[in-house]
């Protein structure tokens, strides 16, 4: 299941968000050794203060096993402000039908179930959740900064990245930026390759007592 946490629900799902930031620390700081801001076992950056939407992959035991952050391209984005070199002089996207994804992370066992291409079903679920989110908001594309390994995974999953420019060395990573199409066609391909039978996205509805 993919859980959507919108800005107006942060307070209600504070524990889930804390678990997400701990997961990001484990993945980006401890495993990948990226130059990220870390504090007390949490990875949090300035873009988290912009009230993004988060998608969380929940395990059968309720654990937070994966996440991705989504921000509209009409405001500050990592591509435009942190990685402009990847644009190769082009103007960063700024359109209400394009959102940016960042901080895509999974913390699952190597023995986790796999779908087509040897890709973890958990990865397919997060991809499907991103597309479902985009379709629910009439998006045409998601723009993202990623690396060559993830570009290959996206291609094998049936959701190919349309490059904005050529890969560049950023820190210890060969990074690049590109667009991911948001469409029923892409959703069907990801679901089929991941063995996903239907929607994965769950948007909790809370009843608040006045």
Could you walk me through the main structural features you see in this protein, from its secondary elements to its overall organization?
This protein has a single domain (2-202), classed as Aminopeptidase (3-Layer(aba) Sandwich), CATH 3.40.630.30. It is built from five helices and eleven strands; from the N terminus they run E-H-E-E-E-E-H-E-H-E-H-E-E-E-H-E. The relative contact order is 0.17. The strands form two sheets. Strands 1, 4, 5, 6, 7, 8, 9, 10 and 11 form a nine-stranded mixed beta sheet that branches. A two-stranded antiparallel sheet has the order 2-3. It starts with a strand and ends in an 8-residue tail after the last strand. A hairpin with a 2-residue loop joins strand 2 and strand 3. The protein is an alpha+beta fold and 210 residues long. It has helices at 14-31, 78-81, 121-136, 148-157, 184-194; strands spanning 2-5, 38-39, 42-43, 53-58, 64-72, 98-106, 141-147, 162-163, 168-170, 173-181, 201-202.
């Amino acid at each position: 299941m993919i859980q959507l946490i919108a800005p107006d629900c942060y307070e209600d799902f504070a524990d889930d968000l804390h678990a997400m930031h701990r997961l990001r620390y484990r993945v980006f700081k401890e495993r990948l050794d990226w130059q990220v801001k870390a504090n007390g076992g949490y990875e949090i950056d300035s873009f988290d203060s912009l009230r993004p939407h988060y998608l969380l992959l929940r395990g059968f035991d309720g654990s937070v096993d994966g996440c991705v952050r989504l921000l509209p391209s009409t405001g500050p984005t990592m591509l435009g402000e942190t990685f402009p070199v990847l644009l190769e002089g082009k103007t960063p996207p700024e359109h209400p039908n394009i959102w940016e994804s960042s901080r895509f992370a999974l913390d699952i066992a190597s023995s986790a179930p796999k779908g087509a291409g040897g890709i973890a079903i958990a990865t397919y679920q997060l991809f499907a959740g991103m597309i479902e989110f985009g379709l629910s908001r009439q998006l045409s594309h998601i723009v993202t900064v990623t690396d060559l390994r993830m570009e290959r995974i996206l291609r094998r999953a049936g959701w190919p990245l349309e490059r904005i420019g050529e890969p560049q060395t950023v820190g210890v990573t060969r990074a690049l930026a590109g667009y991911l199409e948001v469409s029923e066609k892409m959703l069907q391909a990801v679901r089929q390759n991941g063995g996903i039978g239907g929607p994965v996205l769950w948007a909790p509805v809370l009843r608040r007592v006045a």
